[in-house]
Amino acid sequence: MSDLKLHNTLSKSKEGFVALDPAHVRIYVCGPTVYDRAHIGNARPVIVFDVLVRLLRRLYPRVTYVRNITDVDDKINAKAKASGRPIAEITAETTKLFHEDMALLGALPPDIEPRATAHIAQMIAMIQSLIEQGHAYEAEGHVLFHVASMADYGKLSGRSRDEMIAGARVEVAPYKKDAADFVLWKPSTDDLPGWDSPWGRGRPGWHIECSAMSREYLGESFDIHGGGQDLIFPHHENEIAQSECCNHAPFARFWLHNGFLKVGGEKMSKSIGNILSVHQLLGEAPGEAIRFAVLSAHYRQPLDWTDEGLKAAKSALDRLYRALETAPKARAAANVPETVLAALMDDLNTPLAISHLHEVASALNKASDQSEKDRLAGELLAAGALMGLLQNDPKGWLQGAGNEGVSEIEALIEQRIAAKKAKDFALADRIRDDLKAKGILLEDGPGGTSWRKL
Ligand SMILES: [Zn+2]
Q1: What is the pLDDT of residue 1?
Q2: How many angstroms is it from 32 CA to the middle of ligand 1?
Q3: Where are the domains of the chain?
Q4: Ligand 1 centroid to residue 410 C-alpha, Å
Q5: Which tens digits make up the pLDDT trace of 163-198?
Q6: How far is the centre of ligand 1, averaged over its atoms, from the C-alpha of 272 (Å)?
Q7: pLDDT > 90: what percent of the chain?
Q8: What is the Cα Rg of the chain in Å?
Q9: Per DSSP, what are the bridge partners of residue 115?
Q10: 30 CA distance to ligand 1 middle (Å)
């Protein structure tokens, strides 16, 4: 039993978290569809649930975190067709880039990362069971979930039937018994990926993969299911329908959803052309500053992404690292400051936790005694670790490390040393002046050349 409180979309209220099995907490989060580089909106749930998992790991002896990879999807098929590249190549490459981008944002990998295409048999078994139990039916090579067969369908989103049909933008197809029924399996033509099934060669609908893979790795009932707010309906509503009708057991106990992310006040969209990829942002700021900017808003609130917000995040981190720099020998304390922990325990209030980080930094800056400084820096480091922050070397950070430019600067310094040795002083001076123009100051001293940001 802990004092952790989480907002549960299912009850629409903040509840005390009670683990189904305190010896083993289980969490599932919907992962990316791998056809394009992740944008900052995709990164938000990854960062938010990374903080939750870090907190759960502090509270419970064992946590299993599953996040899937959707590698069968019509958007992937369309990309393969447009680019002429094989699907497997696109999904493998996009998965690798996703891993790289998320690691730079300080997100720890999930314990299990199942791919949809490796779990088709589990999906077919679940669909078969739903048909046998009268919750699904086959029609013209499709298998559909019959929404009317579930008495409490709609309990997560709380939508009316008409709103559901409009929200799901479901096709009114002649083979459907009811417009609200959704696809579990659909036929594939020869040019599309497909698997043999009792209903002919085809491929799964999107929702069934999460029901099948969460059951495979976490069991029929587990503690927490997370994702973006946009997934509440229809994706999560349909996951509940499939899982509970198949298993006759409650599915996830807690449903957590992060709010929308906008860019400059507008929804990100291809047509506006304001989609910000994580990769692009990593060229502008260190991953930790991006993470900090995401955590500056409470996860349930909408987050408006702006250049100013990212700059403010970077300078807030600079301030925290400057405080840490005054206690270079400090190591993370065993205990996180009570204020920071209490903020996180209250439905992951990261903005409040961040304000407490600043309080610790202020106390650290004011402390005159070095052992007191070391103690406060140790607390700051422990709190930072819990949030996936402040784990860089302060000196390196303040010099600009964390930016991709560091190795470039080091390489230029090497070039300048070589130029000096070759008595090409014109080149050596030019390298120094070029770096200065970019805001990097070189300092020659007895120990060699060091550099810092102007
Ligand atoms: Zn899902």
Answers
A1: 45
A2: 9
A3: 5-258, 263-399, 406-453
A4: 44
A5: 777 766 666 688 899 988 999 999 999 999 999 999
A6: 27
A7: 83
A8: 26
A9: 69
A10: 4
CATH for 263-399, options being 1.10.730.10, 3.20.20.70, 3.90.550.10, 3.40.50.880: 1.10.730.10
What whole-number distance in Å separates Cα of residue 39 and Cα of residue 32?
Answer: 10
Instruction: Please tell me the least confidently modeled range out of 9-13, 230-234, 357-361, 450-454.
Output: 450-454
**Model pLDDT, residue 79:** 95
DSSP H stretches of helix in 109-227: 120-132, 161-168, 207-218
CATH of range 5-258; options 3.40.50.300, 3.40.50.2000, 1.20.1250.20, 3.40.50.620: 3.40.50.620
Please give the distance, rounded to the nearest whole angstrom, from the Cα atom of residue 225 to the centre of ligand 1: 9
Stretch 70-81: mean pLDDT: 96
Report d(CA 120, CA 124) in Å as an integer.
6
Strand partners, 442: 451
Q: Which amino acid does the sequence have at 82?
A: A
pLDDT confidence tier of residue 404, bands split at 50, 70 and 90:
very low
Q: What is the pLDDT of residue 378?
A: 98
**Which two three-digit tokens encode residue 233?**
């309906």
The secondary structure of residue 39, as a DSSP letter, is: B
Confidence at 12, pLDDT banded by 50, 70, 90? very high
Residue 305 CA to ligand 1 center (angstroms) comes to: 25
236 in Cβ contact with 225 (< 8 Å): yes
